[in-house]
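Hey team,

Filing this mostly as a record. A colleague (T.K.) asked me to run one chain through the structure pipeline before their review meeting, and I want the input and output archived in the tracker in case anyone asks later how it was produced. No errors, nothing strange. Just documentation.

Input sequence:
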Amino acid sequence: MNEIVTVYSAEMMRRLRSRAFILGLAIGAVAIGVMIQFPNFMQSIYTNHTNRVVLAGDPALLARAKALLEKDFKVVATSSSAAAPTAHDMKAHRANAYFILASAPNGLTVTAYARDPGDVSASQLRRLLLPLSIESAARISAHRAESIVSIPVRIRPVSSKFASARQSNAARGIAYILLLLLYLLIIINSQIIMSSVAEEKTSRIAELLIASVSPAALLAGKIAASITLALIQLGVWVAVAAFAGGHGSVAASGSGLGASSPALSLAGVSATELASFLVFFLLGSLQMSTLFASFGSLINRTEDLGSLSGPLIMPVLVAFFIAISALAVPRSMLVVVASFVPLLSPFVMFARIVVSTVPLWQVAVAIAINLIAIWGIAVLGGRVYRVGMLLYGRPPSLKQVWRAMRA
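Output structure:
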């Protein structure tokens, strides 16, 4: 036990003092903050440049149309002229589109001129101006026209953990951010520990270490230090995400560009979801760190790190993409089965927990399977690590690795 503590302390101090760790921590925090606020930035660009419009036509008609169109557009000017606009007219108002409205026997006609025709949706204009068209064609009051098109729609949950679509969409957004954090932390720290093991072996430092410390204690100390540093990174990045998510707003999706909804905020994460994230983060980190460390011991040249780490990353990539699909279809058979498979389970089961109600027995079974997998990976990986660290000059053959795993 003392050997593990010694290796753990030395590895922690070395990594904490390294410029790479400090720089990665800072860059990661900035990247998380930018990612959270990026939708606000894009919304401001869209609002300021894409949805600026000019209305033209009968002034009495424009007053009513302006109130309807301002739900999605920014009306910067109105004109009584029904003539087609020139490029100079568009530039003078810094407008992206020019709508000419006129009354017709069957309702309303709209002629839209746009810098880019793809920026104007005919169905969007029909939806916004439908009350005015009904009012004009049927000669009824504006209030009556509004009541005709305002169909009451109520959405009621059935066996759902969310009371509204707003809550459901917010949970999916939060889950995506947490899954991305989970993916980044597991991959980054697993590769760091693999590089550390390979560096020690190629520089022959491992000879001195193994002469003083047993290979099992060396491996355990390195993995413990790696996971501790990952938890530090996680704490800093989540704090940044919570701060960035609490400032600003994210525009609502769809065509309603003028509307906005509260920013993605980690304040909506329940204690159960937070505990699940930490548990599955630890399970995933232990599995991947042990795998990367044990296979890193087989390397005799640092140039071989990429070719060996590539296949090890594949299960994490597969798990991440299945987890993303689980946010939309958490009850899919593939998703449910994958949530019990080691290496995939930490991502997929966590995604299911966030967006659906998962039976407690399934969570318990998934945790138990992952703990058994960690034990198996530790036993087999430890044997590979011992053989790899003691052999120099050439990588151990598959036959030697197989014998070590069976010993």
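Quick notes for T.K.: The radius of gyration is 30 Å. The CA atoms of residues 58 and 330 lie 53 Å apart.
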